[in-house]
Amino acid sequence: MLFSEIIKMALGSLGANKLRAALTMIGITIGVFSVISVMTAIGALQSSIESGISFLGSNIFQFAKYPANVNVGGEIKKKYQNRRNVTYREALHYAKLMEGNAREICLKTFGYEVKGQAVYNGVKTTPSLLIVGTNRSFLTANAYTLGYGRNLNEEDVELSRRVIVVGRMIEKRLFPHETPIGKVVRVSGHSYTIVGVLAEKGTSFGQSQDDLCIMPVTRFFEDYGEAKRTVNIATQAFSTEAYNQTLDKGISAMRIARGLRADQENDFEIYSNDSLKSAFTSVAGIVRIGAFVVSFIALLAAGIGIMNIMLVSVTERTKEIGVRKSIGARSRDVLRQFLTEAVFISEAGGILGIILGIIAGDLLAAWLKVDIIFPYGWAIAGLLVCSAIGIGFGLYPAYRAANLDPIEALRYES
C-alpha cells in the first residue's frame, strides 16, 4: 500500500471516533502546553535581562542592608530585618575611605513608604511616585541619563537645597506644554524646585522606571526623617580590569565603616549586575525543572491514554483487520496504519499545545512589557517528543493488530 493511502485510512478511522480521539489528544496538549508556555515566558524574560535586571551601571557593585531579592519569608526575612541599618554617617565614612579608589560613589535611600504624589497648578500625578534621596552619582549608578536641565551637585547636598530632578512621567503629566525647569511643585506636602528632567528609561517587568524624583539626600532626611532609614552605597570602579581590586577595597572600607571586628561576618549585602543575573538564571533553572517534571507526568499519562485507546480500537476493529488481510493487506500495512493513527493523535495534541503555550507565554511577556519571542527550539523539541510518544505508546497496539491471525479475526463477532 502507498503511504498516502495509509494516511487516508488512518484519518478516516480517527474521523469515525472524533470525540474519543479529541479527548485522548487533550492529555498531550496539556503536557506540551505547560512546558512551552513556561519556556516561552522565561525566554522572553531572559532576552530582557540587560534592560530589566541590569539596573546598575557598568563596573558597579552595591552594598545594602537587604539583598536584591528582598521578598523572602519566615526566618530569612527576619534575619535581614534585624540587621543594623546602614546609616548616613557610615556611608559618609565609607566614601571618605574610598576617595581615590573609585570613579563614583552613590549614596541613596528610598521613601517606599511615602505616598509620593507631585502637584502643580492643581494637576496631580498618581500617588505612586518613588522619592529618592541621593547625590550626583545616582544617574551613573542606576543607568539613568539626564534629558535636559542639570543634575544634582555637591552643593545641593551640603546645603540641603529644595531641588529635585524628575522622571519623564512626571514631566508628561504636569508639564505637557511647558518646560518644568525652574517650576516649583509640591511633592508629598513639601515644595521643591525642578532643576532637571531624566531621559526616558521605560519599564522593567511591567513597572515604570520614570515615575520617580530624586533630591539631595540631606533634604530627604530633613523632610522625611532619617532615624529608621538605611542607605544603599553603589561604587563604580575605574575600569573592568580594576573591578575586583576595587570590590576588595570596598568590602574592607565597608567593614571599617560598620565597625566590624576581624572575626565578625559581614552584616551587609553585596551585589552587582552579574550576581543578579546569576540569581535570575538559578531561579529560571528551577522553574524549568519544575515545568519538565509537570510536563513529563502529563505526557506519560497521555501516552498511556493513547496506548489504551489504540488497544480498544484494535479490539473493536478485529473483524476489519481480518477482512483487510484476507484481501491481501500485509502485516506491515496494518502496523503502519495503527502507528500512523497514534502518531497523528500525539502530533495534533502537540501542535495545539505548542500554539496555546506560545500564546500564553507571549501574553505574559506582553504584560511584563518585554520582547515577544517564538521559541523555535522548544517547538521543534515538542514535536519530536510528541512523535516519540506516538510511536512509543502506539507501537504495541499496532504490533498486536498486525499480528492478528486473519482467520481468527474473521471469526470475531461472527
Short description:
With 414 residues, the protein is of the alpha+beta class. It contains 15 helices and 14 strands. Strands 1, 2, 3, 4, 5, 6, 7, 8, 9, 12, 13 and 14 form a 12-stranded mixed beta sheet that branches. It has a two-stranded antiparallel ribbon with strand order 10-11.
Which helices and strands appear, and what pairs or packs with what?
Layout: H1 3-15, H2 18-47, H3 49-52, E1 60-64, H4 74-81, H5 88-97, E2 104-110, E3 118-120, E4 123-124, E5 130-134, H6 138-141, E6 146-149, H7 154-158, E7 163-166, H8 168-174, E8 184-187, E9 190-198, E10 203-204, E11 207-208, E12 212-216, H9 217-224, E13 232-236, H10 243-258, E14 269-272, H11 273-316, H12 318-326, H13 331-367, H14 376-402, H15 406-411
Parallel strand pairs: 5-12, 7-9
Antiparallel strand pairs: 1-13, 1-14, 2-5, 2-13, 3-4, 3-8, 6-9, 7-12, 8-9, 10-11
Helix pairs in contact: 1-13, 2-11, 2-13, 2-14, 5-10, 11-13, 11-14, 13-14
